[in-house]
Amino acid sequence: MHILGIDPGTRASGLVLFDMTDGHVKHADKAIDHDDLMCAFYNERLDVGGSPLAGGLALTWDQVVIECLSPAGQVIGHDTFDTIFWVGRMFEAAHGPKMPGVELLTRNEIKKRLLGRTNIPGADKHIRQVLVDQVGPKGTKREPGPTFGCSSHSWAALAAVWAYLHPDGVS
If 0-12 CB within 10 Å is exposed, 13-18 middle and 19+ buried, where does residue 38 land? Predict the structure, then answer.
């Protein structure tokens, strides 16, 4: 089973394709262009060309997990509305007739599942440490680890996948 995790942004998104059979990231992109991501949904596969993780294959998935925004009682700007717009587009595109299920998880739900609570300062570094501890280290190009290729927003995409896989929280 392959799970596609997405951390939406205003102009590009973090993406990770996680393989449940071996517990490794098969492809990670810290900033995939939204047009490329929409093409992937409509073509029902992600063409990754010469990706060292995927071996230049067209990758498919069985489940999609998208991090989404939740109301925080604060004033929001244009960038937030852009991100909300893209979450909706991705959700709709991932619901094609032959497409797998789609799960939306808020950032607070991800933090709660991975860290046990939501009000943790510097939560991103703590979440990354949970992922390294539970999924595995990045490793090197010569000896890639389970999270090899993750950087920047692809860590947030992997966090969404890991939270989806652990609805009762991690231990």
Answer: middle
